[in-house]
Write a structure and sequence with these properties.
Bound molecules: adenosine-5'-triphosphate, magnesium ion
CATH topology of the largest domain: Rossmann fold
Helix content: 25-40%
Distance between the termini: 53 Å
Shape: elongated
Strand order of the largest sheet: 6-9-10-3-11-12
Largest sheet: 6 strands, mixed
CATH class of the largest domain: Alpha Beta
CATH superfamily of the largest domain: P-loop containing nucleotide triphosphate hydrolases
Strand content: 25-35%
CATH architecture of the largest domain: 3-Layer(aba) Sandwich
Number of helices: 11
Radius of gyration: 27 Å
């Protein structure tokens, strides 16, 4: 990754008096793959439009190479965009779709007799040929030059759109949910492909998605947004391992988020019991949110468990089982390769590095309980669960932490 290229300083945006971006501060480096990630309506597209020059923020600054760009129109920003609906020209073939931008004469300024004159300049046909073919090779569409757009698959059309956006050699490519229209398998292939293309052409990609897995797969940096604000900026590993609050922990991957108290450095209390962890720097007895990832929990016999609960659901997922375990009415998700049948009492063990402790936030208590997940499965298996209901209730009353 190179040096800083773009910076947003305190950017705010509102429509009809309603604030949709609230003091966005962000910098993007040359050659970085940066992803804006967040739920629908959080302001991703608006942020992208501000960078692209399609929208001007009501306050704040947009800097490119340290220069203020707020009022510079899109075509003077060295930025190109790939939209979700990629709007190719159906009456032109693949080659002419990609060549389209190159065929538009450019206005150039020249010094003549001490005066600056503007004139329109066309690229030579030979250069157009070379550049289009080079780009078709980058997106793996060599040999498709004379295909009609209607004769291409969705994934191939997406590649044409990317080639068309890259052929002008922008410094930055903006991509707004470009894979949204593709099916899951194709999306996964294109994620890897896009990352390769970005590395090959060596420019900055700013990518918008609400798909956390997509963000984790492709990005150097992820910006997690909610309701017009940035919640966290970091590498995929940072965001996954050290989420700042319950919103981020819940949005990125699966998380059990439990109410706890930080007794002192490296000791957290949940369910009235103390656990060793690696976190510190909190006030004595500070209330905290405790994140435990489903894959960091070991199932052990009840007498060996730090906590004891009852399995309420089991779903086979191919690589692992997703099991829902009830601990005193709060349901956890555990991912394990060991099968534990519904109704069984199990113990769990969590290593100190399996805990991640977060400060309380406006999102505390809103996420990280798998009760509703559990209910969906309970409804599906309602018929055979009926006669076991009494046993289940009795078992639940016995639950709690091991003595
Ligand atoms: N031109 C506009 N006029 C009025 N409101 C707008 C306009 N553009 C966006 N908004 C509002 O701004 C908020 C943020 O919209 P934005 O398109 O940036 O969200 P997003 O994160 O891209 O969502 P999605 O994932 O659904 O595309 C939304 O509440 C939206 O309704
Ligand atoms: Mg959007």
């Amino acid at each position: 990754m190179g040096k800083e290229l773009i910076r947003l300083v305190d950017c705010c945006m509102s429509y009809d008096g309603e604030q949709v971006l609230d003091h966005i501060n962000l910098y993007i480096n040359d050659r970085e793959f940066l992803t804006l990630l967040g739920p629908s309506g959080c302001g991703k597209t608006t942020t992208l439009r501000i960078i692209g020059g399609f929208t001007t923020p009501v306050s704040g600054e947009v800097l490119f190479d340290g220069r203020r760009m707020n009022d510079i129109p899109p075509h003077q920003r060295q930025v190109n965009t790939v939209f979700q609906r990629y709007a190719l020209f159906p009456h032109l073939d693949v080659f002419e779709n990609v060549a389209f931008g190159l065929r538009i004469p450019k206005v150039v300024e020249e010094e003549r007799n001490g005066r600056t004159v503007r004139r329109k300049k066309k690229l030579p046909e030979k250069e157009i040929q070379e550049r289009v073919l080079e780009m078709l090779e980058v997106v793996s569409l060599k040999g498709f030059e004379h295909r009609r757009i209607t004769e291409l698959s969705g994934g191939q059309q997406q590649r044409v759109a990317i080639a068309r956006a890259l052929v002008n050699r922008p410094k930055v490519l903006l991509l707004d949910e470009p894979l949204g229209a593709l099916d899951l398998k194709l999306r996964k292939d294109m994620q890897i492909e896009l990352k390769r293309i970005q590395q090959q052409v060596g420019i900055t990609f700013i990518y918008v998605t609400h798909d956390q897995e997509e963000a984790l797969t492709m990005s150097d940096t992820i910006v997690v947004m909610d309701k017009g604000t940035i919640q966290q900026i970091g590498t995929p590993e940072d965001i996954y391992n050290e989420p700042k609050n319950a919103f981020v922990a819940d949005f990125i991957g699966e998380s059990n988020i439990i109410d706890g108290v930080m007794v002192r450095d490296r000791v957290v209390k949940m369910y009235g019991r103390e656990f060793a962890c690696l976190d510190g720097g909190f006030a004595e007895n500070e209330p905290v949110d405790v994140v435990i990832r489903p894959e960091d929990i070991d199932i052990v016999p009840p007498e060996e468990g730090q906590l004891v609960g009852t399995v309420t659901n089991v779903t086979f997922k191919g690589m692992q089982y997703d099991i829902i375990v009830d601990f005193k009415g709060f349901k956890w998700l555990i991912q394990t390769t060991d099968h534990s049948p519904e109704g069984r009492h199990i113990g769990v063990k969590i290593d100190p590095d399996g805990f991640h402790i977060m400060k309380k936030s406006q999102y505390s208590g809103m996420f990280g309980d798998y009760s509703s997940y559990s209910e969906e499965y309970e409804e599906l298996s309602d018929a055979d669960a009926l006669d076991e209901e009494d046993d289940g209730e009795a078992a639940r009353r016995e639950d709690g932490y091991a003595e």
